[in-house]
Amino acid sequence: MKRNAAMLLISSLFIAVVLTGCSQGAAVSDKESSTKNNTSGKLIEPSELISKAEAEQLLGESLQEAKNSEQKVVGLKISNYDAVKEDTFKFLQVSLTQQAFMPDNGQSSQAIFRALRDNFPANVKVDGVGDEAFIAPPGIHILKGSYYILIAVGNSDDVKNREILISAAKKALENLEKLKGN
């Protein structure tokens, strides 16, 4: 029950920051706008970026099947893997914001990523991951083309969790490239 409440809190924080950033007039450049309007690809599910087996390998823990949710207003799909053991607080959450799932009048994935980045000025930049990446609550935020990926595993200030986040980000990007056919 604690895990579900924590995930609801993390998801709510994410959506609140996105909507706050968007309502404060996050500018959408012509390039971002054309990317959004010209994007028609297939929808990708977050569980395709990191499978249950891959999540178990990353965490070193047996996990339940993914619990999925979505917030179409911001083009967001979420897969959350909770630990099988009730007495542990281990989880891995993959959130994916993609143009193909957004309403036509929505902000671009790039604008959402940048609004979040700007709302966490003390973020930790991560080089060599995606087009741009940083660590800030609740995990690692990655921009790759028109995809914004957020991966969370718990306290992002913990050194071991940061290592897991970076490994998870690399795996998610590898799988994204395969899904896109690149």
Straight-line distance between termini: 40 Å
Radius of gyration: 15 Å
The SSE order reads HHHHEEEHEEEEH
Report the sheet-strand fraction: 15-25%
Could you give the count of β-strands? 7
Shape: globular
Mean pLDDT: 83
As residue ranges, the low-confidence spans are: 4-14, 16-40
Brief sketch in words of this structure:
By secondary structure, this protein is α+β, with helices and mostly antiparallel strands. The protein has helices at 2-23, 30-38, 46-49, 52-59, 109-119, 159-180; strands at residues 67-71, 76-82, 91-98, 124-125, 132-136, 139-144, 147-152.
Offer a few descriptive terms.
42% helix; 6 helices; alpha+beta; 21% strand; 182 residues; single chain; globular; seven-stranded antiparallel beta sheet
Report what the structure shows.
The protein has helices spanning 2-23, 30-38, 46-49, 52-59, 109-119, 159-180, and strands at residues 67-71, 76-82, 91-98, 124-125, 132-136, 139-144, 147-152. With 182 residues, the protein is an alpha+beta fold. A 7-stranded antiparallel β-sheet has the order 1-2-3-7-6-5-4, sandwiched between helices. β5 and β6 form a beta hairpin. The longest helix has 22 residues, at 2-23. It is globular, with a radius of gyration of 15 Å.
